Amino acid sequence: MDEDRAVQAEYLKALAHPTRIRIMELLEQDGHCVTNIGEKLDLKQSNISQHLGILRSRGILSLRREGGHSIYCIKDPRALEILQLVRQKQAS
Amino acid sequence: MDEDRAVQAEYLKALAHPTRIRIMELLEQDGHCVTNIGEKLDLKQSNISQHLGILRSRGILSLRREGGHSIYCIKDPRALEILQLVRQKQAS
DNA sequence: CACTTTTATTATTATATTCTAATAATAACC
DNA sequence: GGTTATTATTAGAATATAATAATAAAAGTG
Q1: Which candidate in A2, A3, A5, A81 is best for mutational testing of the B interface (most B CBs within 10 A)?
Q2: Residues near A63 by Cβ (< 8 Å), separated by ≥ 6?
Q3: Distance CA A36, CA B70 (A)
Q4: Whole-model pTM?
Q5: Residues 6-25 in A contacting B (C-alpha not used; CB under 8 Å)
Q6: How far is the CA of B16 from the C1' of D16 (A)?
Q7: Tens-place pLDDT, residues A45-65
Q8: Is-contact A26 A38, C-beta < 8 A?
């Protein structure tokens, strides 16, 4: 199906951004809230929120609310495998 | 390094397009020339050539000339592993 | 309830991608 | 050498992405 490849492309596109790669690296350890991520990455809140929204809309991240905070976590571990492969490629 | 993530993002971006995914699927079997790919995918020659150029510039494809034809082949099999993971994700 | 904190959304601007069409470059063939 | 076939490159227009700033929404705190 051709629709499938569009979905696949969207999925890869979600990972294909330096900031979103950094977010994935950060969340690999633990869930974090938006403010926290923004501080660690030194980026504006709205920007982080948008990036998180993109990753979530593709099913890569999940979100739970916890006392006024939005805690984002990695939902799809295959995204980490993909990033691992990309890193290997670079090392070679 | 932050430069690394930019390179990683470029690599993923190269795969993050429906047409380029189709090209990867086609080349998974065998190398093909530009005209051939253009016919199978029913797309303009210049468009195909551009997509192939992108995949090649990221080290994903390689090119050999053969009697007036440019034969493109998959150079980095890790790209196939990545696409495989993306497909799995979709199936789940 | 006012106030603050946290997050999401919207509008805008700047940049990047993608496709098409046209042209150039390369190499086979007669 | 001229012609054709194949591929690459360029320019242009349309669309998509990304960052910022501003605002809205939601929820905790005093």
Answers
A1: A5
A2: A52, A56, A70, A71, A72, A73
A3: 50
A4: 0.94
A5: 6-13, 15-18, 21-22
A6: 14
A7: 999 999 999 999 999 999 999
A8: no
